[in-house]
Amino acid sequence: MRWRCAHGEAPAVTLACARTVALAPEDDSVDSNLVHITGSGAIASFGKGPPIIKRVLFEAGITLEHSAKLQLLCCMNRIITVPAIGLYACDGNGHWNEVHFTETGAREISRRLDRIEARLEQIERHLEP
Prior knowledge:
Blueprint: E1 13-16, E2 34-38, E3 41-43, E4 51-58, E5 62-64, E6 70-71, E7 78-80, E8 84-91, E9 96-103, H1 106-127
Parallel strand pairs: 1-2, 2-4, 3-5, 6-9
Antiparallel strand pairs: 4-8, 5-7, 8-9
């Protein structure tokens, strides 16, 4: 008997930033554990969902609002100013808990590139006749 199954993880599902971004709707329209939220604005809830953990990629310009429906590790609103990644667990009743949150490192890379650029400008000024 042949058996077919998916290998690896499903591709990311892209959702627009909104007051409620449904990460795991009952109709299974977000059929991936990886979600990319685009745009800017405030998110108050990730909607109802089954007991599940989702990995979420955020763009800069998004604010997560801490509440009973969206409990954040920092226990206050989170303003995302650089690309970031979070893990969120749903209890099956529409309450989402942040399990982990981190910036992607884009801020540090930009800082380092800015320092390199400034150093190159210094060298070029030094080499000018």
